């Protein structure tokens, strides 16, 4: 899977600056579209024509795009300024070959349903990257993919393997698991149950490694004891990016975003890519 187009959600804040810097740091020749979505009514409303809000925002965006072109000659940069709901306007640009990138606010935010979480929870094909505001371009050499044996994690493996190959980084597949709290059997039986479960979890990891190799990757594997979201969040402090699948269920269930992906977006210290099925 190769992204030929990158869409960056822009609003002039440090969060969107972090998203833009991460987009520019990615290897490849994908075009970059800066999209400023101004929450509110359509630009045809009398109020917006009177205040000129859209025009002022468009000028600011075009000036930022000109600066990017000067700093990165040869990169294709386009701009768009629209009114509407950010998750709808940016989500409408998701496609199998398009990566939508947004920034996120600092930890301790007032809501769990950030723009990144809402975008990542939309049904359909495509990938969403969420970048923390304090992201820096210091060299990091590992792409981490969270795997759990699901179809969604296979899609994440494909994206992670392509990203690692394109950037020349290592690929690490991580499967985290916990012992069910309901287990309360005798000590000897308990140890046997845990050992059996660990082997089953190792089989899941081995299958994921084999799947990654089928795409030409040379991954390493890590079996970790602990909740998937906390384990991946800790690894995000040293990884160049963490890639996970979105367990979209349809309807309003979990707002279309699995608990691991959602919790990771709220706690990760580094960039996270959430992948919907891209086949």
UniProtKB/TrEMBL annotation:
UspA domain segment(s): 3-89, 142-275
Any Pfam family hit: Usp
UniProt cross-references to InterPro entries, sorted A to Z: Rossmann-like_a/b/a_fold (IPR014729), Universal_stress_UspA (IPR006015), UspA (IPR006016)
CDD domains: USP-like, USP_At3g01520-like
Secretion signal span: none
PANTHER family: STRESS RESPONSE PROTEIN NHAX, UNIVERSAL STRESS PROTEIN UP12
Family: Belongs to the universal stress protein A family.
This protein's name: Nucleotide-binding universal stress UspA family protein
Organism (species): Agromyces flavus
